[in-house]
Amino acid sequence: xxxxxxxxxxxxxxxxxxxxxxxxxxxxxxxxxxxxxxxxxxxxxxxxxxxxxxxxxxxxxxxxxxxxxxxxxxxxxxxxxxxxxxxxxxxxxxxxxxxxxxxxxxxxxxxxxxxxxxxxxxxxxxxxxxxxxxxxxxxxxxxxxxxxxxxxxxxxxxxxxxxxxxxxxxxxxxxxxxxxxxxxxxxxxxxxxxxxxxxxxxxxxxxxxxxxxxxxxxxxxxxxxxxxxxxxxxxxxxxxxxxxxxxxxxxxxxxxxxxxxxxxxxxxxxxxxxxxxxxxxxxxxxxxxxxxxxxxxxxxxxxxxxxxxxxxxxxxxxxxxxxxxxxxxxxxxxxxxxxxxxxxxxxxxxxxxxxxxxxxxxxxxxxxxxxxxxxxxxxxxxxxxxxxxxxxxxxxx
Length: 397
Prior knowledge:
Blueprint: E1 16-18, E2 23-24, E3 30-31, H1 38-51, H2 53-56, H3 75-86, H4 94-99, H5 104-116, H6 135-143, H7 147-150, H8 169-181, H9 187-193, H10 198-209, H11 224-230, H12 235-238, H13 257-269, H14 275-282, H15 286-298, H16 312-323, H17 342-354, H18 360-366, H19 371-382, E4 389-391
Helix pairs in contact: 1-5, 3-5, 6-10, 8-9, 8-10, 11-15, 13-14, 13-15, 17-18, 17-19
């Protein structure tokens, strides 16, 4: 298979300097440095002007939404990606049609041309740049309105009011949504969450998931020992120690007993609709429900497995490990991100997160990212100064 272009020093403007041996691409091709002459670059320009300019702009600087800049990009990366498109590796895509009739040699020369031209200028910083300085502080601010009833740290001190610690954030965010939509009947809660956006609901849920779990500081009216036997029927969903293994099912360990008993009564009379819970709740009389609630109140809650959110700077530091300082890659296999179009970066990161664009490494990096993380990262790299790179051959000893 034809070897990929790393880059020739004569073709690339001064910038970072890298000396390294031949590498192996993600596709398994051995990559060796080859020289591209001025004639090769001129031919690459002709190919680019004919096949690429319409979308990627003159000189590879795009003015089309979600279409990337190619100017100053690493040649080996461009060449490998063009081959992926050519063989249909991205499915039905306009890029496939654009390159499918081009030879590998033409793709190689086009990659050399784009690597040789000046990179784009950084995007100007908007007046309200989407930088998440401290996501947890934002989550704390969103949860502040809940403290009056649920406690500053989500541990209830009011009988009948649930603790919010120890709950998977997915479950708690869904519960907030159910109160907002009226699916859960509670006029007070419906009014309180009416103005809470989905993003704020997720922030609130995340804040409480990250708090140190503790038992509700409320009395339990039932007999915990008597409730232990009845709890055996609940263990399949809520866990033997009241700690659920499912994000869709609440943990009950340490929960306020009066709230649990009231929830069971609501499932029993149908005022709280849930086909799974209706049957088990129907089998409990008021005393048995109180005993069951007392049992769970006596158990020790556990924190759900939730990663602490990172700031944009911390996320970018992780990205820089492969993509270079401030997104200026010195690895020929990794694309430069500096000064790339922000809307394109958002689209690409979203595609890696959803699995539409395949990469084991990028899937792992993007899986925990929220939409706000992706938006902030894309804006961060779009504002970085792009720098060219020279690959220096190491003389044989």
